[in-house]
Amino acid sequence: MQAVILAAGEGTRQRPLTWSRPKAMIPVANRPILGHVIGAVVESGIRDIIVVVGYRKEQVIRYLSELPFDVRVAVQERQLGTAHAIRSAGRYIHDDFVVLPGDNYIDADAIRRVSGTPYAMLVRNHQSPSNFGVVTLKRGYITSIVEKPSRAPSMTVSTGIMALPQDALAGLRQNDLTTEIDGWIESGMKIRGVIAECWQDAIYPWDLLRMNEVLLGMTVPQKAGQIDRTAVIRGPVSIGPDTVIGPYTVVTGPAVIGDGCVIGPHACIGPGVSLGSRTVIEPFCRINNSILMEDVEIGTHSVIESAVIGSGAVLGDHTTATRKEGVVEVDGGHIRTSFGLIAGDQADSGPAMVYQNAVVGTNAVLEGHRMIRSSVIPDESRVI
Fold first, then answer.
1. Chain segment 219-245, per-residue pLDDT in tens
2. pLDDT digits (tens, 9 = 90+) for 181-226
3. Which of 14, 56, 12, 4 is nearest to 202 (CA)?
């Protein structure tokens, strides 16, 4: 059995986080989503792994080259669909295989269960089915699949994970796998639906917070770096080498802190926090339920919750980001959401800013002392 992991996509609905990285390379629990997928595949017993790359492929290839085992790479020159991506890996496929998106999380047990049946698809109920391929089931078999319908015929969706025999490769005619599967069903082919128990996708940036929560639940405690004797570490917390935890700082797990971070004193971190390497949290800050990527700086006396902060972003002193229900404009439409702040890479936010349900674009500059609520600040913009 082989695994074909699709990591060529751009992830446009994850803007602004995917201007500088493929969606599969977004760090969640301080590890690219793709890394979690590969880890589950290896744990399931599959060792023959092919990763299909495309958008910003150099980043993915560099990451794969650092793994302690060999992974073959296939290039999809143009992102024309999932079936087209599988065909791009065709010269490496010599056995039955399981197809997995590189930007979803799935556990090893589910991979084992689906890979044991040719022509089987992992499915799961979802509260927003119209964002996915929606399937209908009868006696355990899929009777129809329709991609992102405006009115979903059921609450059951395809996870994009499917087991196929090797000879299915020759039969792939369409560019999109959903269209191909629909044709197979119409021709009378039986495709079994296998229920997934632990599957996480992130359509929009704020969805990463739920994925982070799930993956942090697997944190293996580790204490490295320099931890002041007055600091308090509670629950499952992983602290990387060269990190400094200042006096009277409290870290509550689950939480993951990368290498070379500087935190506190008198800071409160967690639960539900991922801090990327070289992040600086100034004194008297409180951070919870958030993802901060590498090289982020948070000014003193700040409160950050339900936030995803891109690499190199700077939030000034006395910043507040708090979860608030609201409506955000995405791709010309409006989506009801609930989060604090999404900030793109290198965003620069001045002091005394208040964010609620706000998106700040890559390289945007905000001079400070204002509230941003249920708004999108475009990339490269300047707010004075």
1. 999 999 999 999 999 999 999 999 999
2. 888 888 888 999 998 888 988 889 999 999 999 999 999 999 999 9
3. 14
Cα–chain-centroid distance for residue 306? 15
Residue that wins the pLDDT comparison between 68 and 152: 68
Cis, peptide link before residue 254, omega less than 30° from 0: yes
- Please give the C-alpha separations between residue 83 and each of 139, 169, 178, in angstroms, as whole numbers: 27, 9, 8
Element housing 100 (H / E): strand 97-101
CA distance 156 to 123: 7
Cβ(250)–Cβ(266) below 8 Å: no
d(CA 16, CA 10): 11
Residues 6+ apart with CB under 8 A from 80: 175
Evaluate whether 299 touches 284 at the Cβ level (below 8 Å): no
Look up the pTM and report it. Answer: 0.93
Q: What are phi and psi of 97, to 5 degrees?
A: -145, 160
Question: Which tokens sit at 18?
Answer: 């995917």
Residues in the chain: 384
Q: How far apart are CA 258 and CA 224, in angstroms?
A: 10
The pLDDT confidence band at residue 128, using thresholds 50, 70 and 90, is: confident
- Which helix H or strand E contains 59, and what residues bound it? helix 57-65
Give the Cα separation of 137 and 185 in Å (integer): 12
Domains of the chain: 2-203 (3.90.550.10), 218-383 (2.160.10.10)
